[in-house]
Amino acid sequence: MPEQGQESRNIVVNGQRTSMRLEVEFWQALDVICERQGMTVNQICTQVGRRRGTASLTAAVRVYVIT
């Protein structure tokens, strides 16, 4: 059962389909960032994924959104 206030979405990172679960507020903020940058969620997540080191993609996206 999903946690309260979280949403799962299917995304494509480096050409690979995957899913990611984030709090609704993080998805909303990520959508705003994508609009401002003129990029898609897939493109942003691919960039974040390439720079994340050993962190999970979800954790890396959360840090990206906050910073």
Structure, explained:
With 67 residues, the chain is α+β, with helices and mostly antiparallel strands. Helix content is 52%, strand content 24%. It is built from 3 helices and 2 strands. A hairpin with a 2-residue loop joins strand 1 and strand 2 (16-23). The longest helix is centred in the middle third of the chain and has 14 residues, at 24-37. The chain is globular. 9% of the residues are buried. The model has no long low-confidence stretch (mean pLDDT 94).
SSE topology:
Blueprint: E1 6-13, E2 16-23, H1 24-37, H2 41-51, H3 57-66
Antiparallel strand pairs: 1-2
How far from one another are the termini?
30 Å
Structural class: alpha+beta
Query: What's the helix-strand series?
Result: EEHHH
| Total number of helices | 3
Summarize the structure.
Helix content is 52%, strand content 24%.
Characteristics of this structure?
67 residues, alpha+beta, two-stranded antiparallel sheet, globular
